Amino acid sequence: MMGHSRRAAFVDRLERCVRFCQTHMSTEEGEVLPAARARLSAQDWGELDAACTAYSHPLTGHEPEEDYREVFRRIVDDAPAQIGLGPAIRKAA
Question: What's the predicted TM-score (pTM) here?
Fold first, then answer.
């Protein structure tokens, strides 16, 4: 385990990472995707679908090993709905 003395720094970095990802996804969903929907043709979407079907991990270039699939599934199941399948994220007032 990482130890209690390093927990605060880890949590801080993790929270910053989550905020960054939420902001990034918000930009994609609020700006990029609406612009794409307005400008791309059915043929464009077909080409994108084909490219995404052949997607592999950007760092390794291949699908994750079976051991990591379960970890990924658990993260996605527990992650809030905006980024995973879990409960919706409450927006700060």
Answer: 0.49
